[in-house]
Specification:
alpha+beta; SH3 type barrels; 16 strands; four-stranded mixed β-sheet; Elongation Factor Tu (Ef-tu), domain 3; Rossmann fold
Length: about 350
């Protein structure tokens, strides 16, 4: 439970169906001034507790600050320091929500860990199939592609076949006070200044200034440090130019930020690391699949290939915009999640 409408409706649906339900909420590490975020606001805790009281279910607040720091926050910072752009939700879901929390739920005697994620789960011949949520605007399959079969076997997603409007209607039907509560931010632990301010406060001085260069290596100016830039960024560069300039690549070895015009933002292939498959990839090698290269991004038709050393690569049928090392690339066969990996290298 988070104190939001989705997890509250998920709990209410289970109670209405006659299940024995226990409400669990995580207290995660967060900067002191991020009170508006779901993982650290005292009012969110009170809202979740109030919903549990209204539903007549036990409610436990679990202190996961250190676990969250070790598994999510510090790796998030280190990935930025390494010149990549991470998605911490991928790690949080794999290691915290459906890792440590799933273990906790089982220790309490729970048969299923239930969340308000908008995904569908089907079982076929002993295999769990992870599918998109029916609401295309709320589908969260991208952030759950790394879950194992053992993790999926212990999960239930009662909102996967609903649209968000239906969830809010159910919240009103159940007379939940959170029925009109706005959706939460995704990056839940940083305070003022966003991730850049967070990095300065946590790891200030762990980077070096360097050069802005164009694709030919011509020096265009000086940058503050690689962690302050991400692929596709235009604002905050401090570079005068006759045409708009964007970050097209971070060169970690040379400590350079490569800039280019809008056409330089497009790429035709990406290589991948840290692969995880929900389905046997051999059935899809060399055949067109749909790929999503960041959360809530459009899908792109691509060919998945495997090299002689076991490395995977996606070749896009049309150039894609702002493919970014460190982000997840998730593959689909219509609404079925095939698997995915972390973007390692981008080719143009």
């Amino acid at each position: 439970m988070s104190g939001g409408v989705d997890s509250s409706v998920a709990a209410a649906k289970l109670v209405a169906e006659g299940h024995e339900v226990i409400g669990l909420m995580l207290r995660l590490w967060a900067e002191p001034d991020c009170r508006d975020n779901r993982c650290c606001a005292p009012e969110s805790v009170e809202q979740a507790r109030a919903v549990a009281n209204q539903l007549g279910i036990p409610f436990y607040l679990l202190d996961y600050k250190k676990k969250f720091w070790d598994a999510v926050v510090e790796p998030f910072a280190q990935t930025y320091l390494a010149g990549e752009t991470p998605n911490p939700c991928l790690t949080c879901n794999k290691k915290i929500r459906f890792g440590a929390l799933l273990d906790e739920a089982r220790a309490l005697g729970g048969q299923k860990l239930v969340t308000g994620h908008y995904v569908r789960l089907e079982e076929n011949a002993g295999q769990y199939l992870l599918k998109k949520g029916l609401d295309p605007l709320k589908d969260q399959s991208y952030v759950l592609y790394q879950l194992s079969q053992a993790q999926l076997a212990g999960c239930m997603f009662p909102l996967g076949a609903l649209e968000k409007s239906q969830t809010r209607a159910l919240a009103k039907e159940y007379k939940l006070e959170v029925a009109s509560k706005p959706d939460s931010q995704d990056l839940c632990f940083v305070g003022s200044g966003g991730y850049r301010g967070f990095l300065e406060r946590i790891h200030g001085g762990a980077w070096q200034v360097g050069d802005f260069v164009d694709s030919q290596g011509k020096i265009l100016g000086r940058h503050r440090g690689l962690p302050f830039y991400t692929v596709g960024q235009r604002r905050g560069l401090g570079i005068s130019s006759d045409q708009p300039l964007y970050v097209t690549r971070l060169d970690v070895k040379q400590n350079q930020v490569v800039l280019g015009g809008g056409e330089a933002r497009y790429s035709t292939w990406i290589s991948l690391k840290e692969m995880h498959f929900q389905q046997d990839p051999t059935a899809y090698l060399g055949h067109p699949i749909a790929a999503r290269i960041r959360y809530n991004a459009p899908e792109h038709p691509a060919l998945l290939t495997k090299g002689q050393q076991g490395e995977f690569r996606l070749d896009f049928l049309k150039p894609v915009l702002d493919a970014t090392p460190g982000q997840g690339a998730v593959f689909y066969d219509q609404d079925l999640v095939i698997g995915g990996g972390i973007i390692k290298e981008v080719g143009r």
